[in-house]
Write a structure and sequence with these properties.
Structural class: alpha/beta
CATH class of the largest domain: Alpha Beta
Number of domains: 2
Strand content: 25-35%
CATH superfamily of the largest domain: Medium-chain alcohol dehydrogenases, catalytic domain
Number of strands: 17
CATH architecture of the largest domain: Alpha-Beta Complex
Radius of gyration: 20 Å
Mean pLDDT: 93
Distance between the termini: 25 Å
Shape: globular
Number of helices: 11
Length: 372
């Protein structure tokens, strides 16, 4: 059995607000696994928009702007302390954030299978009530409603622990859980399949770049949208075309770049002022699926576009049972690849979030626990 210390390093989120709400500690008690749980030694943990959104209480309806660098660093005016989680319910502080854990099982709680000991694992990010798994209101997000992986050790129920046989490094494995499962959930909700053409705003981000890869493994074509400085990197993922982030005429831009008059699906994590044009370029019977609003959650919509074009809208948050196991299979079979932008030490989480908010990267930023 691995020697386990009594205390560990961890980043505490002490309340909703700016980067000053993150506190680095070296004397946090190591959690003990309960019945049906395991203790995991965290080797790496990926960073995602939800880390920022939970800290700033961006999920509160009182926040109406997008996640800017300033807002993400200082917090948002009018944020509500009781509405900071994915489910718009209060969370307890201090909270250890971080959902994208790569690590190994080092201790077993009562009833946990002995064959998990020493295995490399990922953690399924939605913690369900497995006695009532279809009740979405009972689902809790790892690193939000429950403590996550910005610490040396973390606990998880065995129902959420997935072993894997991938030869990828822990830093590489830590890029997948949130971004890729969010993307896969969007595609599953929109029933994306071979023959579809999918427009992907925000294609340089973690979810956007995952969407390109996951669309391609389904046999769908993609049209990416990205800032000018990142176009070459996004193009390396082989979409049909890479458009500007905010073209003056989206329909004309698609036509000029691809010859297509419309797309069958928009997979959106951006929102903001481009929402109307996104709907305009959907074909009749097209599908719009959304799992974010980084350019702003409040949008204008012409309902006539929605009903006259027979569109289908799907929100994508809590994943379907079995979807995470599918993702692990994609990883093991080499069907998707990690995109690592930068790594930081656990003690430098504030600096890592500043880099994340600057949006100069493509892919994922990862906290590497092996760094000092």
């Amino acid at each position: 059995m691995t020697d386990i210390p009594t205390t560990m390093r961890a980043q505490w989120l002490t309340g909703h607000g700016g980067l000053d709400k993150l506190e680095y500690h070296t004397d946090v008690p190591v959690p003990k696994p309960g019945a049906g749980e395991v203790l995991i030694r965290v080797r790496a943990c990926g960073m995602n928009n939800t880390d920022i959104n939970t800290r700033t209480a961006w999920y509160s309806r009182s926040v109406t702007e997008g996640t800017t660098a300033e807002g993400g660093a200082k917090g948002f005016a009018g944020m509500e302390d009781g509405a900071g989680s994915w489910g718009r319910e209060g969370i307890g502080f201090p909270r250890i954030q971080g959902a994208d854990v790569s690590g190994e099982v080092v201790a077993l709680g009562e009833g946990a299978p002995s064959n998990l000991m020493g295995k490399r694992v990922m953690i399924e990010t939605w913690f369900r009530d497995w006695n009532d798994p279809t009740d979405l209101d009972k689902a809790k997000y790892y690193g939000s409603e429950v403590d996550g992986g910005y610490a040396d050790y973390t606990i998880a129920p065995v129902t959420n622990v997935h072993t894997h046989t991938s030869a990828m490094t822990d830093v590489e494995i830590a890029t997948f859980a949130t971004s890729y499962i969010t993307a896969e959930n969007m595609l599953a909700r929109a029933d994306v399949k071979a023959g579809d053409t999918v427009l992907i705003p925000g294609a340089s981000g973690g979810v956007g770049s995952a969407l390109i890869q996951l669309c391609h493994r389904r046999g769908a074509k993609t049209i990416a949208m990205s800032g000018a400085s990142k176009k070459d990197q996004v193009a390396a993922l082989n979409p049909l075309a890479v458009l500007d982030r905010e073209p003056a005429d989206l329909s004309a831009a698609i036509k000029d770049a691809t010859g297509l008059d419309s797309v069958s699906v928009v997979a959106d994590v951006v929102g903001g002022k481009m929402f109307g044009p996104f709907l305009d370029v959907l074909e009749r019977g097209g599908r719009y699926t959304c799992a974010g609003a980084i350019a702003g959650p409040i949008v204008e919509m012409d309902l006539r576009t929605f009903y006259l074009k027979d569109l289908t809208f799907t929100g994508a948050t809590v994943i379907q049972p079995g979807l995470f196991a599918d993702l692990v299979g994609y990883i093991e079979r080499g069907e998707i690849k990690p995109l690592i932008a930068q790594t930081f030490a656990l003690k430098d989480l504030r600096t890592a979030q500043e880099a994340f908010l600057a949006k100069n990267h493509i892919g994922n930023i990862v906290i590497d626990h092996s760094l000092d």
